[in-house]
Write a structure and sequence with these properties.
Elements (H helix, E strand, L loop, with lengths): L2 H13 L12 H22 L3 H25 L4 H28 L4 H24 L8 E3 L3 H14 L7 H18 L4 E3 L12 H16 L1 H38 L14
Antiparallel strand pairs: 1-2
Helix pairs in contact: 2-3, 2-4, 3-4, 3-6, 4-5, 4-6, 4-7, 5-7, 6-7, 6-9, 8-9
């Protein structure tokens, strides 16, 4: 047999390999939470198109809770999969990208005309980019304590909490101008590199003091009795937490440099007035 026949046989074997088969079926438990998350985003869009903003805004909050549960349940039950990751990202684009953008447009961006719908589109684009970057950067071994950029659920909570706090809507052009900041600021933070604290590292299986349960009960009571004030305060507090962390880090860094320079200063470098003797 010649060398050419051997090469052709090698090529035929390589080309005749069966294609890769993907596993059939999905893990039902985490996928149900993802479907519920997707439904909340769809319901928010439907109610926003009807002008029922007070009913539409809480659906984004429900979607945030469901989004936190599906990933944690998948990890606890060992049912995490590539399909679940992609399905969750697509659902998040609807619930935390399109839904808050349409809600914000109907509530306060419509009087701005093209500027309003352009701002909403920027928010949708930023949310999609944020989710795509998260899927790429969420590799094993990374720092799980922080997010690079504002998470899309937290960014969607800003317009959702604002609308829920003041559901009457904005009809005048001048009144609608602040609505641009409600949409564009979280959109810019999503694609930024500012670090936001992540709560995924919290271990629910470890023992905690009894006061933790009391604090959780107090938080549930506040959300139940004063939902508008508490939810909008929580949303904006998380947004401000990143900038507060940056300020604290810079203050500590400057204090550390000042202490290091003070310890490293030699007596000969002191001014003549500070020296003792002739």
């Amino acid at each position: 047999m010649s060398d050419d026949d051997g090469r052709l046989r090698f090529l035929r074997r390589t080309g005749s390999r069966p294609p890769r088969r993907f596993s059939r079926g999905v893990y039902l438990l985490p996928s149900l939470f993802t479907v519920a998350n997707l439904f909340c985003g769809y319901a928010c869009v439907v109610y926003a198109m009807r002008g029922e903003y007070e009913t539409a805004a809480p659906f984004i909050g429900f979607a945030i809770v469901l989004d936190m549960l599906d990933g944690r349940i998948a990890r606890l039950t060992g049912t995490a999969s590539d399909f679940g990751l992609q399905f969750d990202s697509l659902a998040d684009v609807i619930s935390f990208g399109i839904a808050p953008a349409i809600l914000s447009f109907g509530w306060g961006l419509a009087p701005l005309g093209r500027l309003g719908w352009a701002a909403g589109f920027v928010f949708v684009t930023a949310a999609a980019m944020r989710l795509a970057r998260f899927n790429i950067q969420s590799a094993p071994g990374g720092d799980k304590r922080y997010f690079a950029g504002m998470p899309s659920p937290a960014a969607a909570a800003i317009p959702a909490a604002t609308v829920f706090f003041y559901p009457a809507g904005l009809s005048d052009y001048r009144e609608a101008l602040p609505a641009l900041a409600v949409v564009l600021v979280p959109a810019m933070l999503m694609v930024s590199t500012i670090r936001f604290r992540s709560f995924k590292t919290i271990d629910l299986r470890t023992r905690r003091p009894y006061t933790v349960l009391l604090l959780i009960a107090a938080a549930i009571m506040l959300v139940t009795t004063h939902p508008r004030f508490v939810l909008v305060a929580m949303a904006y507090a998380y947004l401000a937490s990143a900038f507060i962390g940056i300020a604290i880090t810079r203050i500590r860094h400057r204090a550390g440099r000042g202490a290091a320079s003070g310890l490293g200063e030699s007596p000969a470098a002191a001014s003549p007035r500070d020296r003792i003797g002739p």
